[in-house]
Amino acid sequence: LAVEHPDLVLVHAGGDGWQVERLDEALAAMGHPDRVRRLGHVPHDQLGHLYAGARVFAYPSVYEGFGIPVLEAMACDVPVVTTAVPALREVAGDAAAVVPVGDIDALAGAIATAWTDEAWRAQAVERGRLRCERYSWEACVDGIVGIYRAAAAGSGPAPAHT
Questions:
Q1: How far apart are CA 60 and CA 62, in angstroms?
Q2: Whole-angstrom distance, CA of residue 54 vs CA of residue 15
Q3: Residues in contact with 30: Cβ distance below 8 Å, sequence separation at least 6, in sequence order
Q4: Beta bridge partners of 72
Q5: Dihedrals φ, ψ of 105, to 5°?
Q6: Which range marks the domain in which residue 76 is found?
Q7: 78 three-class SS
Q8: pLDDT in tens, 65-121
Q9: Is residue 65 in some structural domain?
């Protein structure tokens, strides 16, 4: 990607996770140290500015409990590329490019598409906006209120017998 897209800069935000040594080795082997920025932890109140400056948000996680960063990027109108981890697939839906975990070629291809294909980018941004609506506080409250109403009306599922 670095050769094909000389304007591409990799910005890595977040604390050092497991296997950080492998990340450092891969970044060093890339041969473009001037095009890599390791920011470390970014305070929450500065994340919006970081997302707003991104052309693509790549989140190649191998394990996630939910995937808030994917929604944050979508909320900031940034096209998302992520991995097929169950939680990320569920959160991203059809609003992101989802690639197999560990498939570097697929990840690079999806990032290249997200970087250059304006039609795909526009569609991803629009779908991302719609996807974020599913996870808004209003949608969460509506869902919980619906559960309580169904339970109060006696139309909820039967209790389990012990």
A1: 7
A2: 19
A3: 2, 36
A4: none
A5: -65, -40
A6: 42-152
A7: coil
A8: 899 999 999 999 999 999 999 999 999 999 999 999 999 999 999 999 999 999 999
A9: yes
pLDDT band at 29 (very low <50, low <70, confident <90, very high): confident
Percentage of the residues of the chain whose pLDDT score is greater than 70: 95
134, part of any domain: yes
Domains in the chain, number? 1
In eight-state DSSP terms, residue 136 is S
- 160: pLDDT strictly greater than 80: no
User: What CATH number has the domain bearing residue 82?
Assistant: 3.40.50.2000
Mean of the per-residue pLDDT values of the chain: 90
Question: Residues near 75 by Cβ (< 8 Å), separated by ≥ 6?
Answer: 51, 128, 129, 132
Instruction: Give the whole-angstrom CA distance, residue 36 versus residue 97.
Output: 22
User: CB–CB of 102/62 below 8 Å?
Assistant: yes
> Tokens 């808004």 — which residue?
136
The answer to the question of residue 90 being in a domain is yes
What is d(CA 96, CA 113) in angstroms, rounded to the nearest whole number? 11
pLDDT at 1: 77
Phi, psi of 7 (to 5 degrees): -90, -5
Asked whether the beta carbons of 85 and 64 are under 8 A apart, the reply is yes
Question: If you search the block for the tokens 């941004």, which residue do you land on?
Answer: 125
